[in-house]
């Protein structure tokens, strides 16, 4: 009797939760459709403390410049002193009144924690964390020294663990904040000749997604997350790289990418894939058999020889 009652309750719960999923899925699809015509309003970030890693050049510098007139306090991290100092000067010209820059090797856990503590003392609790620092070796797997493979993971993946550990507790305590992971389309689809880079970006995406789910599961829905997956960006990181089909997968303009990232943060967009054709490509990849997916990869240029890219030495974002 007890067993039958238990089974009956279990079936009822299954039906109710299934119905809830169906109804909410329809609602979310309708919401997404409406947003095609009525974009969400930008949130007010005045007074927020924004930390950007890899802020000394490239996308990191551009994001800092675009945040400058929004009334935030900027905290800039980079391993290059001259680069981060120059970014600090540029953002002041753009209107920011509070900017702090620090030398920090994000691949060094102890240094990340040390500089993070310094930021908390001198500036306050970071409320928008943008993990942007990244490197690429540009070596085929069997040609890449172990030390460079380890460095790729230390910067592109493990650094995210340490910055989250350092700044997420305050966000969770306040149920307010934003975690941003600048990953890559190479973290969604494997690319010939970029095994270590792809693996590190796959890991970064998986980490960011898992933490986002942890936040939802613990009721910390005030801490937002954004995962950015762009195709090759013309920042110097992939100098010389070409695209097989420029209309389908163009080499991205850095200013365009920075604008889209800021827009995604201000509208609490969870995933940002660039260009938009990446959404279609990902849908195809996840629905095709392996041979078909490999054929698609060949068509898109994933099998092209990457050696024409000038990434044979370690390069940063």
Topology:
Blueprint: H1 2-35, E1 49-53, H2 58-67, E2 73-78, H3 81-93, E3 98-103, H4 109-122, E4 128-131, E5 135-136, H5 146-174, E6 177-182, H6 195-217, E7 223-230, H7 254-266, E8 271-274, H8 277-287, H9 290-300, E9 315-316
Parallel strand pairs: 1-2, 1-4, 2-3, 4-6, 6-7, 7-8
Antiparallel strand pairs: 5-9
Helix pairs in contact: 2-3, 2-7, 4-5, 5-6
CATH architecture tag of the largest domain: 3-Layer(aba) Sandwich
CATH-assigned homologous superfamily of the largest domain = NAD(P)-binding Rossmann-like Domain
Q: How would a textbook summarize the main sheet? A: 7 strands, parallel
Tally of helical runs: 9
Q: In CATH, what is the class of the largest domain?
A: Alpha Beta
Radius of gyration: 21 Å
CATH fold-type name of the largest domain: Rossmann fold
Pfam families: adh_short
Organism: Salmo salar
Family: Belongs to the short-chain dehydrogenases/reductases (SDR) family.
Keywords: Oxidoreductase
Briefly summarize what is shown.
Belongs to the short-chain dehydrogenases/reductases (SDR) family. With 317 residues, the protein is α/β, with parallel strands linked by helices.
Question: What would you say this structure looks like, in words?
Answer:
The protein is an alpha/beta fold and 317 residues long. The chain has 2 domains: 1-38; 43-316, Rossmann fold (3-Layer(aba) Sandwich), CATH 3.40.50.720. 50% of the residues lie in helices and 14% in strands. The strands form 2 sheets. A 7-stranded parallel beta sheet has the order 3-2-1-4-6-7-8, sandwiched between helices. A two-stranded antiparallel ribbon has the order 5-9. It starts with a helix and ends with a strand.
């Amino acid at each position: 009797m007890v067993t039958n009652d238990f089974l009956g309750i279990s079936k009822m719960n299954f039906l109710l939760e299934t119905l809830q999923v169906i109804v909410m899925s329809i609602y979310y699809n309708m919401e997404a459709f409406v947003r095609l015509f009525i974009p969400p309003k930008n949130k007010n970030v005045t007074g927020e403390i924004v930390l950007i890693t890899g802020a000394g050049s490239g996308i990191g510098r551009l994001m800092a410049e675009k945040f400058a007139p929004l009334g935030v306090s900027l905290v800039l991290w980079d391993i290059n002193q001259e680069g981060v100092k120059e970014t600090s000067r540029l953002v002041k010209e753009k209107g920011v009144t509070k900017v702090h820059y620090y030398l920090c090797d994000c691949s060094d856990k102890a240094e990340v924690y040390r500089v993070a503590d310094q930021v908390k003392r001198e500036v306050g609790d970071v409320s928008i964390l943008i993990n942007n620092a990244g490197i690429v070796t540009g070596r085929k797997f069997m040609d890449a020294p172990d030390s460079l493979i380890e460095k790729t993971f230390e910067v592109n993946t493990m650094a995210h663990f340490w910055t989250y550990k350092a700044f997420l507790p305050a966000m969770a305590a306040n149920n307010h904040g934003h975690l941003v992971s600048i990953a890559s389309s190479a973290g969604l689809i494997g690319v010939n000749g970029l095994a270590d880079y792809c693996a590190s970006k796959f890991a970064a995406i998986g980490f960011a997604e898992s933490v986002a789910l942890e936040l939802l599961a613990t009721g910390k829905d005030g801490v937002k997350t954004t995962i950015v997956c762009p195709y090759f960006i013309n920042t110097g990181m992939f100098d010389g790289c070409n695209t097989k089909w420029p209309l389908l997968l163009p080499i991205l303009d850095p200013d365009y990418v920075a604008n889209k990232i800021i827009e995604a943060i201000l509208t609490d967009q969870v995933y940002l894939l660039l260009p938009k054709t990446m959404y279609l490509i990902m849908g195809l990849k996840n629905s095709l058999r392996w041979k078909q997916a490999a054929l698609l990869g060949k068509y898109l240029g994933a099998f092209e020889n990457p050696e024409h890219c000038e990434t044979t030495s370690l390069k940063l974002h």
